[in-house]
Write a structure and sequence with these properties.
By secondary structure, this protein is of the alpha/beta class. The protein has one domain. It contains one helix and six strands. The longest helix is centred in the N-terminal third of the chain and has 12 residues.
């Protein structure tokens, strides 16, 4: 995969004007962007990841039901105040 096709992950709350500006600038530069909020994990966002000894970096899949990113293809992550993950009501108290 060429560097131009590798996405940038933008991790931020849904209503974050600063993250919106970053996404806008990346789009203007034709950089693929996948934006998500970890507050949707694990109800709408799934992560499957592995790191093998002797291999460089992580491998796996990040999927929000609309978009999918392969971790080994990610070129950068912009992390800006994502929401806190919400525990489903079906999970019992400790």
């Amino acid at each position: 995969m060429t560097a131009a096709a590798r996405p940038v992950l933008v991790v931020a709350e849904q209503l974050d004007a600063s993250a919106d500006m970053v996404v806008d600038q990346l789009n203007r530069r034709d950089v693929p962007v996948i934006r998500f909020d970890v507050a949707t994990f694990p109800q709408q966002l799934t992560l499957t990841a592995a790191h093998a000894v002797g291999e460089a970096g992580w491998s796996g899949i990040l999927d929000d039901g609309r978009r999918t990113a392969r971790l080994e293809d990610v070129r950068a992550i912009y992390w800006r105040r994502p929401g806190r993950p919400l525990i489903a009501d079906t999970v019992p108290e400790p």
